[in-house]
C-alpha cells in the first residue's frame, strides 16, 4: 500500500504558498490551503486545484494563535487524514524602517506571525508525525529567507531576525526529532516576485535590486515551490537540519 500523502501549507492562498500547494496537489498530495484573511485567493486556488483533478481543503486560521492552530490540524485530521508534510510558509513584512523607528507593537507582531506561528505548527505536526506518539513519521519544511543572512539593514531588521530564528528552529528541531521519523529542513529564498514587497512599502523593490543579483533577475514562486517539494520528498531522504538558498547567487 502506498504511503498517505497529506500536506498542510500555511499561508497558501497567495505567493510562494500557493505555488507550493499547486505543486503538491499535482503530485498526488491531499492539500490543506491555510489562509488568514484573503478568502477569495484561497478559494480561487482551491477551484483551480480541484479542476486539475487534485484534492484540497481551505482552512482559515491565524497560525500565530494557539487555538487556531489546534483547530487547523484537527480539521485536517478529520477531512484529509494525518498530516505527513508541514510547510511553514506564512509570514508578514512591515514597512521599511530603521531600527530606532520600530516600536514594540511592530516587533512583537513580526515575531508572533513569523516565529511563534512556526513553533505552534511544528508542535502540532510533531505530535502527529513522531514515532514517539505512534506516528508514521513525516517531513517539515520551513520557509526562512536570505534576510536571515543579510540582516536587512535600513529595511527590516525585525523581519530578518525573525527568519534567523527560523534557521535556529530548523536546526534544533531537526536534531530533536531525528530518531523519530521526522526530517526538518529549510529554504531561504531571496527576492521572489510576490505581494510581500508591497507590504514592505516598495512594490518594485526587485526591479531596483535585481542588478546586484548574480543571476540578474528575481525568482518566481514556482522556483521556490520546487525546492520545497524536493525537501519534502524521498529524494532528499538523507537531508535534515539543512538550508537550501534560492537567491540567484546572492
Ligand atoms: P505573500 O504573497 O505576502 O503571502 C503571505 C501569505 O502568508 C498570505 O497567504 C497570508 O495570508 C499568509 N499569512 C500571513 N500571516 C499569517 C498568519 N498569521 N496565519 C495564516 N496565514 C498568514 O508572501 P510570500 O512572498 O509568498 O511569502 C511566503 C513566505 O516566503 C514568507 O514566510 C516570507 O517571509 C518568505 N519569503 C519571501 C520572499 C519574497 O521575496 N517574496 C523572500 C524570502 C522569504 P492571507 O492571504 O490570508 O493574508
UniProtKB/TrEMBL annotation:
InterPro entries referenced in this protein's UniProt entry, alphabetically: NAD(P)-bd_dom_sf, SDR_fam
Bilayer-crossing regions: none
Keywords for this protein: NADP, Oxidoreductase
Residues spanning the signal sequence: none
Pfam families assigned to the protein according to its UniProt record, in alphabetical order: adh_short_C2
Superkingdom, taxonomy of origin: Bacteria
Catalytic activity entry: a (3R)-hydroxyacyl-[ACP] + NADP(+) = a 3-oxoacyl-[ACP] + NADPH + H(+)
GO MF annotations in UniProt: 3-oxoacyl-[acyl-carrier-protein] reductase (NADPH) activity
Biological function: Catalyzes the NADPH-dependent reduction of beta-ketoacyl-ACP substrates to beta-hydroxyacyl-ACP products, the first reductive step in the elongation cycle of fatty acid biosynthesis.
Family that this chain belongs to: Belongs to the short-chain dehydrogenases/reductases (SDR) family.
Xref: PANTHER family: NADPH-DEPENDENT ALDEHYDE REDUCTASE-LIKE PROTEIN, CHLOROPLASTIC-RELATED, RE15974P
Protein name (record): 3-oxoacyl-[acyl-carrier-protein] reductase FabG
The organism of origin for this protein: Colwellia psychrerythraea (Vibrio psychroerythus)
Amino acid at each position: 500500500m502506498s504511503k498517505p500523502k497529506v500536506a498542510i501549507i500555511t499561508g497558501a492562498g497567495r505567493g510562494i504558498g500557493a505555488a507550493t500547494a499547486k505543486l503538491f496537489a499535482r503530485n498526488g498530495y491531499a492539500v490543506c490551503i491555510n489562509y488568514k484573511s484573503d478568502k477569495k485567493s484561497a478559494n480561487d486556488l482551491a477551484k483551480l486545484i480541484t479542476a486539475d483533478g487534485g484534492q484540497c481543503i481551505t482552512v482559515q486560521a491565524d497560525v500565530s494563535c494557539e487555538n487556531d492552530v489546534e483547530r487547523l490540524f484537527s480539521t485536517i485530521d478529520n477531512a484529509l487524514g494525518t498530516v505527513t508534510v508541514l510547510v511553514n510558509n506564512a509570514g508578514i513584512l512591515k514597512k521599511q524602517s530603521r531600527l530606532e523607528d520600530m516600536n514594540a507593537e511592530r516587533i512583537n507582531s513580526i515575531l508572533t506571525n513569523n516565529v511563534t506561528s512556526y513553533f505552534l505548527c511544528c508542535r502540532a505536526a510533531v505530535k502527529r508525525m513522531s514515532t514517539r506518539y505512534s506516528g508514521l513519521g513525516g517531513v517539515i519544511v520551513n520557509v526562512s529567507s536570505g534576510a536571515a543572512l543579510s540582516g536587512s539593514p535600513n529595511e527590516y531588521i525585525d523581519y530578518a531576525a525573525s527568519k534567523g530564528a527560523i534557521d535556529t528552529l530548523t536546526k534544533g528541531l531537526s536534531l530533536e526529532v531525528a530518531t523519530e521519523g521526522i526530517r526538518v529542513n529549510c529554504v531561504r529564498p531571496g527576492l521572489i516576485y510576490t505581494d510581500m514587497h508591497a507590504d514592505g512599502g516598495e512594490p518594485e523593490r526587485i526591479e531596483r535590486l535585481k542588478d546586484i543579483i548574480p543571476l540578474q533577475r528575481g525568482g518566481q514562486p514556482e522556483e521556490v515551490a520546487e525546492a520545497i517539494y524536493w525537501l519534502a520528498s524521498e529524494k532528499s531522504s538523507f537531508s535534515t537540519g539543512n538550508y537550501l538558498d534560492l537567491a540567484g547567487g546572492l
